[in-house]
Write a structure and sequence with these properties.
It is a single chain. The chain is mostly helical and 110 residues long. The chain has one domain (4-109). Helix content is 83%, strand content 0%. It has helices at residues 4-24, 29-37, 39-46, 51-73, 80-109. The radius of gyration is 15 Å and the shape is elongated. It starts with a helix and ends with a helix.
């Protein structure tokens, strides 16, 4: 997929939805980080040709979610920021791994 605006929107919606789902479910910190990061493996493969707009969209989605969480619940817990930061770093790493997987498959098929 080569449309950068779709990649930007998909990254934003994907990370916002993952954060929202992680905040609703009573799970551990590790599960929150994995829930935010692992879907980017597939999305990194789908948006491999426009990975940077996807990553910027994830950053926008995370910022929007943290702003909405602050407006809804007030000051957030001290652990929330580092956990979401670690989830974002894992999401970027998984997205780049998905891009690598796409490029590897593309080079292998030539």
């Amino acid at each position: 997929m080569k449309n950068q605006w779709v990649a930007y929107g998909a990254g934003s919606v994907l990370i916002f939805g993952a954060c929202l789902l992680a905040s609703v479910l009573p799970i551990s910190y590790v599960a929150v980080i994995l829930m935010m990061g692992v879907p980017s493996l597939l999305a990194g493969h789908v948006f491999a040709e426009v990975i940077m707009p996807y990553i910027w969209g994830m950053l926008l989605g995370l910022a929007l979610y943290m702003g909405a969480e602050y407006l809804l619940y007030g000051p957030i817990f001290k652990a929330t920021g580092p956990i979401y930061g670690a989830g974002f770093v894992l999401a970027v790493a998984c997205g780049l791994s998905g891009t690598w997987w796409y490029n590897w498959n593309k080079a292998k098929s030539l």
